[in-house]
Amino acid sequence: MDIRQWMSIMLFVATALMLFVSFLSYQKRHLPVAKTMILIMLAAAFYAFGYALEVLSGSLSDVKLSLQIEYVGIPFVSALWLFQVIQFTGTAARYRKRLAVLLFLIPTVVFSLHLTNDWHHLIYERYLLNPVSSVSLYSTVKGPWYKVHTVYNYLILISGIVLFMPMYVRALPIVRKQIFVLLLGAVAPMFFNLFLWTGTSIDFTPFGFAVSGVAYAWGILRFNLLRLTPLAMARVFETIRDGVILFDYENQIVSYNRAAEKVIPELGLMKRYPVDMAEVLSGSPELLERVRAAGDGDERFPFERFHVNRKLYYNCSLSFIYDTGSTPIGKILMFSDITELKESEARLRENARQLSELNAFKDKLFTIVAHDIRDPIALLVSLTELLGDELTIADFEHAEVVRELKGQVQNTFQLVENLLDWYRSQKGKVSFHPQGWSLQQVVRQALVLSGTKAGMKQIRMTEKIGGHLTVRADKEMLDLILRNLLSNAIKFTGIGGSIEVGAVLEGTQIIVSVRDNGAGIDEQTAEMLRLEEPILKAPAAGDDSGETRFGLALTREFVRIHGGNLWFESEPGIGTIFSFTLLGSAGESDTINHGGREEEVYEGYSGRR
């Protein structure tokens, strides 16, 4: 087997290799750079395959046919490579179509001229028989457009290198390897092409493309060459909202993104990288020392810096970068801006401080209400009672006015009492100490206290509660609940009416009810109670139901503290029944004798029973 056969076999192998790279690229064909890689490798495959046929050619016509096959790829390989570089680097993204037209203009002309070379001989002037050579049957005399195309190819190579240089300087290690693979794919054919300038008749350029194929296959399989392009990785790096600074194993800064420059403006002052980090971070000695003294593991620490009269806060994360093994090759420092969070925390603390001051002022205000308002009103109640008794005895003509004044003062005093009780419950200052109590005794005590007020309207109050019923309740709260419900019933029951307090046991709960035959609850109050507003609206001028609403709202809250519920049934002109539940039990029997239980009657000022 002679050298021509060996050379043709090697060229066929190179063709197969480039077709294999085309296949690998086809699997990533959704990426524009992969589509370009397919065209590059197919063009190079035509070049190598045609040259293999040229080596085996036995006549001038065979040589010309082989050259036609070669020139399917020769004019376009370099232009396609530069277009791929443009895609990788993101150059002139807006004008890429126009740039492609200009880029492929000369290759298209060269292809057309070679196709018609026998008419004008602008590519090859003539073919010379070369009987001495053991490889090529004919040598060619190059025409002017061959030289134009050669110069154009070298300009393309230089342009691609110039585009790659800035990206290579600032790229991540994995991206630098991808750029190196792409440069090798272009430089190798040009390097082999230089042998033609030494006077040799053998064109080694296709073997350079074989080297390119090996490099591209290695890049695709080893470095994900077509999975994430350097441009894409650079854009990811640049568009990260957190600041990122990359250090090499010598603690030199090799790259950073725009967000990092906002954190450390000194990064933009350096003319070239890599640069010693001490030159850049000299204004932040604590940060510089942290990076230098970093251990084996990841570290997190805070970082603060003033910028335009504003203090900026960052959470920093310092991590090591490892190669394929366990040897660290650098560090990555990330800045996460938490300034807004810190400022929000400061605002919340200030709001909390102001709210605390307002609460303190409110506490003082209610203290004033409790001591400086409640006590004078209580004294005024006593004085109006004495004055009312004296005027009644003397049958004074203004006794009715005094009695009305007495009633208003008493109502105001009760409203203040309810307001203070509600305030203590909302502040959590109401002590809740449930104990076992005889429900009958507690109710009788409440009826005695309300007897005077009921007697003024000749209202008959009765109690129907079994003596064996006990409830687990806080005595003070239960007194307030009963006092409010009885006061409400007395207010809306006419002269000569009746009020009945009863209780029944259902399971572990006792249902206590206060029934009257008064005017019933007005629709507005009933609606407010059903809405269960925490604070019921104040009454309008001349509306005396506001006190009732507030007292009922307070009663409902105290019942809930006991774990019970409060509800009502009311019919205008017939009466109202307020019921609430308490936890309780029967002392000796779980059955209440409705027919034989004791009935107590309370009426008149004397409170007799």
Automatic annotation (TrEMBL):
SMART domains, per database record: HATPase_c (SM00387), HisKA (SM00388)
Give the main EC class: transferase
Any one GO MF annotation of this record: ATP binding
- State the Pfam families in the record: HATPase_c, HisKA, HisKA_7TM
Which InterPro entries is this protein grouped with?
HATPase_C_sf, HATPase_dom, His_kinase_dom, HisK_dim/P_dom, HisK_dim/P_sf, HisKA_7TM, PAS-like_dom_sf, Sensor_HK_Regulatory
Q: Which UniProt keywords apply?
A: ATP-binding, Kinase, Membrane, Nucleotide-binding, Phosphoprotein, Transferase, Transmembrane, Transmembrane helix, Two-component regulatory system
Q: Which residues form the Histidine kinase domain?
A: 368-586
Recorded catalytic reaction(s): these are: ATP + protein L-histidine = ADP + protein N-phospho-L-histidine
Enzyme Commission number(s) = 2.7.13.3
**TM stretches of this protein:** 6-26, 33-53, 65-86, 98-116, 151-172, 179-198
Official protein name in the record = histidine kinase
